[in-house]
Amino acid sequence: MLILQCPYCGINADETELAAGGQAHIKRETVGSDDNAFEDYLFRRVNPKGVHFERWRHANGCGKWFHAARCTMTLEVFGTYKAQTFEPPQNIKDAISAKRPGWKWGDFS
Amino acid sequence: MSSRLSSGGRLLDRSTSVAFEFNGRKLKGYAGDTLASALLGNDQMLVGRSFKYHRPRGIVAAGPEEPNALMNLGKGGHFEPNARATTTEIFPGLTAQSQNHWPSLEMDVGVLNNYASRFMPAGFYYKTFIHPRAAWKHLFEPFIRKAAGLGKAPKDRDADTYEHFYSFVDVLVVGGGIAGLQAAKNAGEAGLKVLLLEQTPHWGGRAPVDGAIIDGQPAEIWISSTVQALENMPNVTLRTRTMGAGVYDHGYALGYERLTDHLAPSTAPRHRLWRIRTKQIITATGALERPLSFAGNDIPGVMLAASVRDYIVNHGVSAGDRTVIVTNNDDAYRTALVLKDAGLDVPMVIDARPDGGGPLMDACKEKGIRVETGKAIAKVKGGKRVQGIVLCSQAGAGGMLEEVACDAVAMSGGWSPVVHLWSHCGGKLNWDDKTACFRPDHTRPPLGATGEGFVTVAGSADGEQSSGDCLSNAVMRTNDVIEALGASPQSTTAPQADTEPMAAMAAVWKMPQGAGYELRSKMWLDYQNDVKVSDVQLAAQEGFESVEHTKRYTTLGMATDQGKLSNINGLAILADSLNADIPQVGTTTFRPPYHPISLGAIAGEASREIFQPIDKTPLHEWGEANGAYWEPVGHWRRAYCYQKPGESIEDAVNREVKAVRDSLGLLDASTLGKIIVKGPDAGKFLDMMYTNLMSTLKPGKCRYGLMCTENGFLTDDGVVARIDDDTWLCHTTTGGASRIHGHMEEWLQTEWWDWKVYTANVTEQFAQVAVVGPNARKVLEKLGGMDVSKDALGFMEWKEGKIGGFDARVFRISFSGELSYEIAVPASQGRAFWDALWDAGQEFNVTPYGTECLHVLRAEKGFIMIGDETDGTVIPQDLGLNWALSKKKEDYLGKRAQQRDHMTDPNRWKLVGLESIDGSVIPDGAYAVGTGLNENGQRNTEGRITSTYYSANLNKGIAMGLILNGPDRMGDVITFPKIDGSEVKAKIVDPVFYDKDGEKQNV
What we know:
Mean pLDDT of chain B: 94
Mean pLDDT of chain A: 96
Number of strands of chain A: 6
Number of domains of chain A: 1
Shape of chain A: globular
Largest sheet of chain A: 4 strands, antiparallel
Number of helices of chain B: 24
CATH topology of the domain at 162-285 and 417-484 in chain B: FAD/NAD(P)-binding domain
Oligomer: heterodimer
Distance between the termini of chain A: 28 Å
Strand order of the largest sheet of chain A: 3-4-5-6
Number of strands of chain B: 51
Number of helices of chain A: 2
Low-confidence stretches of chain A: none
CATH superfamily of chain A: Folate-binding superfamily
Largest sheet of chain B: 7 strands, mixed
Structural class of chain B: alpha+beta
CATH superfamily of the domain at 162-285 and 417-484 in chain B: FAD/NAD(P)-binding domain
CATH topology of chain A: Folate-binding fold
CATH architecture of chain A: 2-Layer Sandwich
Helix content of chain B: 10-25%
């Protein structure tokens, strides 16, 4: 059972307080996008062994959505950050680089 | 024969005798006995029948690893199957029954399987009961179900209560043997918050039984002074009868405390589940002795050597008068010495090692005990009891050297550290050739949130053997943990204890080495599942090379003991058969819990009426008092109908349906979700959330809206009212309030976070009553206040003001096609408002109505219901709701998805009304059959029923359904087969059955 720190209220929240929201940093496709791009947006998700970025909601707490950078293999948490961003903040990227040099995830590294 | 000795038993209180019952026989034990020791004390060596062959089985062990002595305990609501006699403390009035036999334990018909065992090898069931197909369902499966399984399932509801307990500590120490006590002491002295759990009622583990000397005194002295020191530390919590059940991600662990199992049934909670968050875990869980594999090693009287010793030292009970010891290591010699000291006969110690053992062997020889080295047991003689053994050379094929008469055999195949908790969350193991066991690899521990290890292992669980080594290991490991937590170790020296040298053990996986099939097919690896050496060898021969596959094929290491005794021996045999090394074969996965825990403990307090909180509207109590027949909707209870005395549910619904259309009905609509959406960008936001245009709605007006998910499917609907320039009130379905609020928040927070919008779920702030029917306006006018005339409050308008003195928002909206007002008042005024309506409505035959009436009324009007007409695969276009899809908007959630080719397929099933030809009610969910067969040879379908009711107003069955090309086939008759084989024919019609022109609501 994971513990993630909610970046809004600062609480180290037990997994029972949280709701998982799948992969983070997905760009919305909508009217005007071609079928393939829309299908990717709607259905295709990465399932990496290692560094991953996920969406979580502090559902039974402050109700806010945030992102977690963690390792799917060791369950190590590199950090959490507010969801209102298009890419992970530099301090999160640095924290990952310190533990997993040369990591790459989508366009991020 | 097993018996109670005249003296001894350090855990016994011989002054307090305890009467209990086994298989209907009244027996006597002492306070401090386990059920197992009490049974042995009464010469009850036969305690059960084996799973597959129904062989007689006796007690093998003295702890949770016991595979055979499984009991049905208690009666009625306190009945519990599969309880281990070895971990059950006796109390006055305890009743136990052995399992898996018919008609009796002594005389069991199922033992016939034993004689057919040659024909029931590994995978017997898989291989045999395949054809014919039909026989599986009607013959094989019921028979095997009856034959399989050990305990009986309880028949009565569990009469006991259970609870959860939350604990947050720095260090959790699991195991209260000397290593665990030492670890807790060091961590406690370093100022850390410590929780120490011990599964038995006693501290100290094996050390007192093994005669350890610590700091120059018997272990018991050191144990009691250490426990006392720990009890005096405010930062240390100690619990006996509490097992560390499992280790999970990020330092989560479960403890299982048996509060009252050792007492007669009471009202106190029976078990307590400890839900522990800890920074570090030290598992000092000890080691388990392994059996040796020789023919007949399952006959009652063959026991683990250390367990034989436990029963003598702890309970003053001997397994036999003449005990042969068989071993591959030095530890079993301790048992020989204990037996001798108790005045019992040890005819022989059989040591498989050619050179025998070390100082302990010498001590035995000095006492005159005969020691045979390089020897083995060829087979054990006896049926329900051991009668003797046949001695042979370990190196040979089992040729008899001599027969030795005895009534018990104490065996030791070496020790396996209990690495379960270390492994639960990913700790890795190394094979140690020297001690022939898996030991924790401290360089590959389970990792926590920081990427650092959070579990360590101390004492004999770490592979240490002598008490001295266990203690110094515990100090070393604990100091590592203390430093990892940023505290300072207060001491680096361990108490002084023996580190007596032992001769190396020898890995002996079968006995004798060259045993033929006849012997191998009587060598039990897994007592609980009846798996023999020959079964694992056969599995290997048949290609089951993975240990996980072999486990499932042979059932080795399954069931309630999860292979505590059998796994290492089994995988050694598998490795040998595959010509592979043991580490190459590996272990099966260790999964929590370590030992079975009760389902009641997992549920905790969450059972019966507090299983789930129930939401009640302000009008709930009125419903309770007025015949409400409740149905659950989300967490709410809504009245399905209000029954008058003596009235059936069906009659009540039909009465309500007519009363609303004839005069006046009241509906408790408080459960409808109410979400405030406010802010400068609220209109823009709602245009994205709804398929309709909500930004153009004028204050004072209402609009029915549809909500889709991003993949186009309908997810909710409801009326939106604009309150003022930047405020909207969105009604959702009853079950949808928090889901839709969450849906809105998700999009606001994660996609359009720069939009200035605020949402609030105010569902429970208001009581809402629908006042419905031709006399709705009259009753409101009677209450007085707001002008609710057609001109002052038109259809799809709302107003705020006073009704009968109540603060009210009145929405003129209709889900029934009648003249209808939905009136929201503050929740605190809900009941008084309802009462006022009730009194004023008497002259109009006011009728409270429930959800079923609501359904019938809306179906008569062809209105859809989320969850009936929709099921997560339906888009608005399927339901003829194109009018609610804004053409003016560039985008809304679901719009792009609704352009995908499957969504625009003209052959999607579409909503129509259906009238059965014979007037009957078509079964809900029935499928319409078309022409031809599909690729599976089944009839093609061309539609299905989504809603179906008897309409009392129309006096016939009406239905809605999604039908292939439905709207283009008006008047066609289609066929719905029923479950009973008959079929019902129905005509496709317009879904509006009643008042097609809407004249009744337009008044």
